[in-house]
Structure formats: C-alpha cells, structure tokens
C-alpha cells in the first residue's frame, strides 16, 4: 500500500553556514523577492518564514528557519537540528574559509541531525564573479563526496533561489 503524501505536514527547514555567507539575504530574497544590501544583524535574523510550494500537484509546506548568531558559537547543536527535515547549507564563493568550514558543518550535521535529513549545498554570491575564489567545480566535487545536491545562487540577483527551495521541496515529497 502506498499512502498519499500528507499535504498538512510542515517541514522544518533550516539555513546553516558561516556568518556572512548570505543565509538571511537568501531567505529574504526567496520570501520577498528583494535584496536588502548591507549586513543583517548577526543576532537578530528574521526568525522563520512559511512557504507553500507545489510538487507533482501536491502542496509541500516549508517552515524555513534563519540561523542567527549561533554560527559564531557553534552552538547550533542537537536541540536546533533535532526536528529539522531539511537543511540549506551555504558558503560564500568569495570566501575560502566559509567553503573550508563546510566539512565541519557536515560533520556536525551528521552528528546531530536526523539520519534522513535533506541537505542542499549552496555556493552563494555568484554575482560577485570578480571576487570568486571557489570554482563551481570545487563546490560540485565536495557535494559529490558527501552525496548531496549542489547549486550556486545569488541572493542579490535571485539566480537559482526559487530553484534551490523547490529542489528541497521535491526531495522532501519524494522521500515521504
Ligand atoms: P548571514 O550572516 O549568513 O545571514 O549573511 P547576510 O544575509 O547577513 O549577508 C552578509 C553580507 O553579504 C551582507 O552584506 C549581504 O548584503 C551580503 N550578501 C548576501 N548574499 C549576497 C549575494 O548573493 N550577493 C552579494 N553581492 N552580496 C550578498
Ligand atoms: Mg543572518
């Protein structure tokens, strides 16, 4: 017997990655279709936002949480990951350290998150081509190593932002 996908399910989704990679900006771009230049307060963030997407004619509900402040303390641990069904893990293509830290984030995720959590790796700030230090292929290679999907995004121009969340929703629906 196969049960139909439960459209009432709310999938807790969280934005993770180093401070400054663009987590808040990406969520604001997705939610409001705009880019607000300048840093959001590292400790305030925007809390969470609810979105309803359509996958194969079914509604998929995401409750997307912005990580704020915890990055610095690496205290985004068990309690925070516990009920997450999906994670958008970001680095900044102009920041080598944010890319190098992805391994540490994945280690933490594998330690604390649910085993079947949906992970999407995102290289953000593609509009800053002149300052790029991480090649697209490097992101792709890392993603392949960990068996997670990968995309490059720009919270500024909106490139791939909707696609990234849609990919997460598709994966959640197909796994259900
Ligand atoms: P967070 O700490 O991960 O939430 O990062 P923020 O969303 O606060 O962004 C950090 C800084 O990077 C801010 O100055 C943003 O305006 C900038 N930023 C974020 N995403 C992009 C992007 O895609 N392109 C450009 N050019 N700047 C971005
Ligand atoms: Mg933020």
Notable characteristics:
176 residues; alpha/beta; binds guanosine-5'-diphosphate; binds magnesium ion; magnesium; nucleotide-binding
Task: Note down, in words, how this protein is organized.
With 176 residues, this protein is an alpha/beta fold. 34% of the residues lie in helices and 23% in strands. The protein has 7 helices and 6 strands, in the order βαββααβααβαβα. Strands 2-3-1-4-5-6 form a 6-stranded mixed beta sheet, with helices on both faces. The chain starts with 9 loop residues before the first strand and ends with a helix. Guanosine-5'-diphosphate is lined by residues 19-25, 37-40, 42, 124-125, 127-128, 154-156.
Secondary structure topology:
Elements: E1 10-16, H1 23-32, E2 48-55, E3 58-65, H2 70-73, H3 78-81, E4 86-92, H4 96-100, H5 102-112, E5 118-124, H6 136-146, E6 150-153, H7 161-175
Parallel strand pairs: 1-3, 1-4, 4-5, 5-6
Antiparallel strand pairs: 2-3
The structure holds guanosine-5'-diphosphate and magnesium ion.
Residues 23-24, 40, 45, 66, 68 line the site of magnesium ion.
In short:
The chain has 176 residues and is an alpha/beta fold.
Evaluate the radius of gyration.
Answer: 15 Å
Helix count?
7
The topology string of helices and strands comes to EHEEHHEHHEHEH
Distance from first to last alpha carbon: 14 Å
Provide the β-strand percentage band.
15-25%
Backbone structural class:
alpha/beta
Sequence of strands across the biggest β-sheet = 2-3-1-4-5-6
Mean pLDDT: 90
The percent of residues in helical segments reads 25-40%
Instruction: Catalogue the ligands.
Output: guanosine-5'-diphosphate, magnesium ion
Q: Major β-sheet, in short?
A: 6 strands, mixed
The count of DSSP E runs of length 2 or more, i.e. the number of strands, is: 6
Low-confidence stretches: none
Shape call: globular
């Amino acid at each position: 017997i196969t049960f139909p996908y439960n459209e009432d399910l709310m999938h807790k989704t969280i934005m993770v990655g180093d401070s400054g990679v663009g987590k808040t900006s990406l969520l604001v771009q997705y939610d409001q279709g705009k880019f607000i230049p300048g840093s959001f307060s590292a400790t305030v963030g925007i809390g969470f936002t609810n979105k309803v997407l359509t996958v194969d004619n079914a509604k998929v509900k995401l409750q997307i949480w912005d990580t704020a402040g915890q990055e610095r303390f690496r205290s985004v641990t068990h309690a925070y990951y516990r009920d997450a069904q999906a994670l958008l893990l970001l680095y900044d293509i102009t920041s080598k350290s944010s890319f190098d830290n992805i391994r540490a984030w994945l280690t933490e995720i594998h330690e604390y998150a649910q085993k079947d959590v949906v992970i999407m790796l995102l290289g953000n700030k593609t509009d800053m081509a002149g300052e790029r230090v991480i090649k697209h292929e490097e992101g792709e290679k890392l993603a392949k190593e960990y068996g997670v999907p990968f995309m490059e995004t720009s919270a500024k121009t909106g490139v791939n932002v909707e696609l990234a969340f849609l990919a997460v929703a598709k994966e959640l629906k197909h796994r259900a």
